[in-house]
Amino acid sequence: MARLAPRPVATHETTLTPLQESCEACGQPLWVAYHSHRDVMTLSGQWHLTLVIHQCVQPDCPNYHRRHRPEAEGHWALPHGEFGLDVLALIGQWRFREHRSVPEMHQGGSVRVTAAVVSRQQLFSAEELQPRDYLQWRNLQAQSQQREECRRQ
Ligand SMILES: [Zn+2]
Known about the structure:
The chain is an alpha+beta fold. Helix content is 31%, strand content 22%.
């Protein structure tokens, strides 16, 4: 499903550089091939990551033009992931340790986070954390609100 709202603007940014500075095959220094960019939503906010990509430039090296991405990139998110590992861990904790239902997670956190890697009804895409079926999503929200109102009375 296409994104319904624009991606939030990054409020934090950082640059990640590979730790390895020389080619493991020929020992020559690695050069910067290009800079890559990605945005990751974490519990601390939206981050804009600038990734420095290195490569060996010795034409006779077996690793010639082989790209080296920053090792720290894997600490932020899964490959091609839009959400940080901390967000996925929080949802996993809510769902599998605390056995919260989707409506309970709605009330405990933001709608974006509670969306649901965790939904038994598979309403949401794990990667986008957005509803696949918007009508069902709205019905689920309405049911959740009704239950909450019944509890208050
Ligand atoms: Zn090399």
